Amino acid sequence: MKKISVLICAVSTIFLTGNMTAHSAEEPAVSAKSATVISADTGEVIFSQNPDEKLPMASTTKIMTTLLCLESGNLYEEFVVDSNAIKVEGSSMGLVEGDIVTKYALCCGMLLPSGNDAANATAVKLAGSTEKFADMMNERAEKIGLSKTYFVTPSGLDGEGHGSTANDMALLAREALKNETFREICSSPSIQVEFGNPPYKRWLKNTNRLLTMYEGANGVKTGFTDEAGRCLVSSCERDGRELICVTLNDRNDWDDHMAMYDYAFGEVKNIELQIPDFEVNLAGGESETIKAGCEPVEVTVFSADEDDFEYNLISQPFVYAPVRKGDSIAEVSIVYNDREVKRVPLYAEESADFYSPPPEKKNFFWKFFKGND
């Protein structure tokens, strides 16, 4: 039986297979210290190996840094990078003192060449210091439900206690991929941005080789330090099904990800969810409510079935007449295991005209706002 609940908001808004071999039912042998594959829709774990062991995750940390940067807005506003923030070891997007950048360029610099300078510059821009930014990262991690993750640095350079798990990093990637700009950047083998003093155009190259090695790969982030070893968070889409794969401390990450995808795509299926109709409160119409619905929604599942999903109405307190049939008047949040799978619009299934009282009941105020008939 479908589970349906209603939430009313008073605020406005708020896999590439290079080899394409036949699927084998045998689980892959993976050299990673920790690994997992999940459905991007439901978060269900399809394959795992020590998925809850907390380990350093190197530059895959920048998934969170980039997500916070994108969510902060004003992505194309120019500013001068902090001169101390960019003085950092390791991989770089090439920032120098006095460079003028945008947040968008910094996001590209983090996700493609894995710039530690970009991560530190982002942290100082958003929070004033890397330490305060780490607090922002941990607050966001808690909201996502990353129970074993702790951030110390915005770049992923080693810090005491800095670490996560394969399962947590998969859930972080799942959240980040809901952001269309994040998805667009991390899926690009290369991208052109402007920065400098004065800014000029230059190309950044993605360190994620899986994008060109394996059919359908569309993200997400590489990482490496001596302590963490090779780390990789990837995503892949095939036949309308999207999976997320994570390996931590893996000397053979490219091959392991391809093997895990080859296995996992054979274990999942798409099901069609029949979304129930909802009654949305109507103001100024002939009736007090108006019916809203949408077409069936397809999701990728491992073991879940249609009865495991909940449907929450997201709406303003009222929709005001007149409403035309087919107007988007609310949203439905599709939830599995306390996690939102998708949020889709609901459309009016009927029209609702403005209520017009009989002439004898049209008082002064009604005539003032509506005019005389």
Give a quick precis of the structure:
The chain has 373 residues and is of the alpha+beta class. The chain is built from nine helices and 18 strands.
Distance between the termini: 49 Å
Average pLDDT, to the nearest integer?
91
Helix content: 10-25%
Q: How large a portion of the residues is in β-strands, by DSSP E?
A: 25-35%
What's the structural blueprint in terms of helices and strands?
Blueprint: E1 3-8, E2 34-39, E3 45-49, H1 62-71, E4 79-80, E5 100-101, H2 103-111, H3 116-127, H4 130-144, H5 166-176, H6 180-186, E6 190-196, E7 199-205, H7 210-213, E8 217-225, E9 229-238, E10 241-248, H8 253-264, E11 269-273, E12 278-283, E13 289-293, E14 297-301, E15 309-315, E16 319-320, E17 328-336, E18 339-348, H9 364-370
Parallel strand pairs: 1-15, 12-16
Antiparallel strand pairs: 2-3, 2-10, 4-5, 6-7, 8-9, 9-10, 11-14, 12-13, 13-18, 15-17, 17-18
Helix pairs in contact: 1-2, 1-3, 2-3, 3-4
